[in-house]
Structures are given as structure tokens and as C-alpha cells.
């Protein structure tokens, strides 16, 4: 069937539409007044029965080609109701049109009515496409049809958007799977290289200072590579929801001191200043929380000049959480960066060409913090430095109360 007009059959107003559109189509086809009235009457009688018995009916008006002739066609489609008791008008409609075909399959009932179009009309493909274009562009017949058309467009857009979202989710999932598989494959040989370079480092004999220097460099770079691959693996774990936390109780003061000692060793050219206002207890996954610290402290060092100060402050925030703040005197960032730094793979335009990185550290840190029930945010001024804050909720019961 060549479909020209579609009308969903929902209420009495649609009867009027179905009737008027049928007349209009007959008129554009050049049919006699008697033929178009007959067709339109049959259409509205069946439409009435469909509206009365179902809430999912529709009418498609168009043309069907049979034996080199065209027939003006109305096709009704609706989910087969349990009790279909047609009104008198339905039987009347059957008598009005020369062809009335009812079929049922997979819970859907189709009724097609047809009236042959005289050869004198000289209908051909090009006339039909002009007709279809005409009805596609035709203005609504009344305010009701205008609202219906708008709803239809909105529904179509909503369906398209849903489909777009579904597809982009699949692509995103595939990307995460790829990252996970690739990182695993890369991690194995790097671990082997790391093991060999450490073996050479401890081999006293046969190594000149130059070779030792080179091996140190290989070892250092391999450590960096391993940490990048580990970040990639973490990202895919977060995305797949495969991350579990093993929590323990620790004093925030000792955690901060431990982390600062490690970082001072890795970045000897910055001065770390620590201030812990109240040494409260927190319940955390220590290894994961160490990742948060090393990312924030590492960034503070990476994005500021040597010999500047990085301060770390831990203070009991509101009654129920502790706030940790890491402040640097570095390059700072713009408002746009502030709004996006915790997004996956985000890097500021200012650092892309000057500082190495993949834009995963803060994304991972923010996941870890929020998974612990805390918050993370940043305050920054371009050129003057940044302060990253995050909170960790304090356990509801102190450790002694648990014993
Ligand atoms: P990476 O450092 O590998 O790029 P991150 O996720 O740790 O990834 O950081 C994302 C971006 O946030 C960085 O590329 C940088 O633009 C900005 N950024 C993070 N920390 C700082 C900081 N302390 N000072 C200035 N910019 C920062």
C-alpha cells in the first residue's frame, strides 16, 4: 500500500479528522462527490467502532495497486480486543464499499477497505508522489490536528533520542571493554620489563655506572607506564561497576603523614606543609584513598613550579565529616576547567601540550571519594594556584563502641 495520510484513532475528534481527510484525499484524486462521500462515511463508521473498542487504533489512508488499477484504500490497525462487538455502523460500512478485508495475526487486527479508482483519473507514479508531497505539507485542518501533529513530531524525536542514547551506550560499553582488554594485555609485558630492570639494579657485578643510570631510567619510566595502565584498568572497573572496597578504620593524621612522606620522596623539589586540626578516625579503603591523595598531591606538584609550597590541611568539617584540602601555588585553572576537571579524560587546553597526562586521575579520585560517601570540588584562580577539597564522612560509631 502507498501510504499518504496517517491518523491515530484516540477519540471522537479523530472521527472528524478521518472523515475530512478521506473526503480531501478523494477530492485531490478527482473522484466524484458520491464516491468520496461513500468512502469517507465507511471510514468514519469503522473508525468509530475502532475507537470504541481499542485504545491503540490507527488509520492509514492511501492507494493500493491491484491488476493495473489503483484503489482508494483505508487501512485500520489495532490490537485485537477480547470482545469485538461492532456497532451497526460497522456492518453498514461493509456494505458501502466494494472491498472489505479483515485479517488477524499476532494479536493485531487489520481491516482494509477499498474503492477502485476509474481509469479516467489517469493515476500514475508521478501523480501519486505529487499527491503524497501535498498531504505531507498540508496545513492542519483544525487546532486539534495541529496539536496531534506536534505530539507526533515530539514522540518521533523522543524515540530517535532514545535510540541515539541506546546506541551511544553500546559504543561506550564497547570502548570500556576495549580499554579493559587492552590494558590487561599491556600490563603483563610491562610487569615483566619492570621485574627484569629491578633484577639488573640489584646485580652488583658487571654494571657500569652508565648502565646503572640507564636501568634506573627504564625502571622509572616502567613505573609511570604501569601507573597509567592501572588508571585505565580502574576506569573500566568503575564503568563496569566491578569495584569493591575493603574498608578499615584509620586515623586521618597518620594517613596524611604517610602520604606526604611518600610524595616528598617522589617530588623532592616541592615543600609540603601539613596541618591536621583534629586527628579524627575515618573508615576507608586505604589503598583506594591513597590513590586520591597521590593524585591530588601529584597534580599539585605537576602543575606548579619547583620549590613552591604545597599545603595539606585536614579539619573536622561539619559534625559528621572530615575535610581534606590540598593547596598549590601553581598555574590554576579557568572557570571552564573547574566545571569539567572531574570528567573522564578531561584535560585543560593550557596543559595538553606542556604536561603529560591522560585526564583520568581526577575522574578516578572523584569516583573513589563519592563511593566513600564524600564530596570533591576545586577552587582555583588562573595563575595563582588551586585548592582541591574532599570530604570523608566520619563513622557513625567510634571504634571502641563496636567492641
Ligand atoms: P592529568 O593530570 O593526567 O591530565 P587529571 O584527571 O589528574 O589528569 O587532571 C585533569 C586536568 O585537570 C588536568 O589535565 C589539568 O588540566 C587540571 N588540573 C588538575 N589538577 C590541577 C592543578 N593542581 N592545577 C591546575 N590544573 C590542574
TrEMBL record:
<dbReference type="InterPro" id="IPR004358">
    <property type="entry name" value="Sig_transdc_His_kin-like_C"/>
</dbReference>
<dbReference type="Pfam" id="PF00512">
    <property type="entry name" value="HisKA"/>
</dbReference>
<dbReference type="GO" id="GO:0030295">
    <property type="term" value="F:protein kinase activator activity"/>
</dbReference>
<dbReference type="GO" id="GO:0000156">
    <property type="term" value="F:phosphorelay response regulator activity"/>
</dbReference>
<feature type="domain" description="Histidine kinase">
    <location>
        <begin position="181"/>
        <end position="396"/>
    </location>
</feature>
<dbReference type="InterPro" id="IPR050351">
    <property type="entry name" value="BphY/WalK/GraS-like"/>
</dbReference>
<dbReference type="InterPro" id="IPR036890">
    <property type="entry name" value="HATPase_C_sf"/>
</dbReference>
<keyword id="KW-0597">Phosphoprotein</keyword>
<dbReference type="InterPro" id="IPR003594">
    <property type="entry name" value="HATPase_dom"/>
</dbReference>
<dbReference type="GO" id="GO:0005524">
    <property type="term" value="F:ATP binding"/>
</dbReference>
<keyword id="KW-0808">Transferase</keyword>
<dbReference type="GO" id="GO:0000155">
    <property type="term" value="F:phosphorelay sensor kinase activity"/>
</dbReference>
<dbReference type="GO" id="GO:0007234">
    <property type="term" value="P:osmosensory signaling via phosphorelay pathway"/>
</dbReference>
<dbReference type="InterPro" id="IPR003661">
    <property type="entry name" value="HisK_dim/P_dom"/>
</dbReference>
<keyword id="KW-0067">ATP-binding</keyword>
<dbReference type="Pfam" id="PF02518">
    <property type="entry name" value="HATPase_c"/>
</dbReference>
<protein>
    <recommendedName>
        <fullName>histidine kinase</fullName>
        <ecNumber>2.7.13.3</ecNumber>
    </recommendedName>
</protein>
<keyword id="KW-0902">Two-component regulatory system</keyword>
<dbReference type="InterPro" id="IPR005467">
    <property type="entry name" value="His_kinase_dom"/>
</dbReference>
<keyword id="KW-0418">Kinase</keyword>
<keyword id="KW-0547">Nucleotide-binding</keyword>
<dbReference type="InterPro" id="IPR036097">
    <property type="entry name" value="HisK_dim/P_sf"/>
</dbReference>
